Amino acid sequence: MTAPQFLPIPKNIHALACETISRRIGRLPFTRNGVEITESLVGVTMECLNAEARKTLPLRTVSREKGTIPGLGECLTERLGKDQSDVTPVIAEVLVTAGLAEPAEVLDASTRTETRGIRLLSAWTWHIASGDFPSCDSTCLSGGETDAWLAQCPVCRTGILSRVTGKRLFGTPPTDYYLDCSHCGAKFIPEKDRFRLVSIAHISDPRWRQYLNSCRKPDEWAALVREETPASPVSRIATSRYRMAPRKAVIPTSQPTIIHRPEKPARPVEGVPVLFSTIRGGSLAVPGTAKTHYFRPVSLRFLRGVRHDLFTRSERIVQQVLEGPAFAEVKPLFVKEYMQYLPLRLGPVTEELIKKNDPLYRQLLNSHGDEGFGSFAVQDEECAHKKGLLMVYVQGKLCHVAGCHTTFADLVDRSLGNITTDQCYRDGDETACRINSLVTAFRDTPVLWCHELSDDNAIDAAVSDLRSRYLQVP
Question: Are strands 388-394 and 300-307 parallel, antiparallel or unpaired?
Answer without folding.
Answer: unpaired
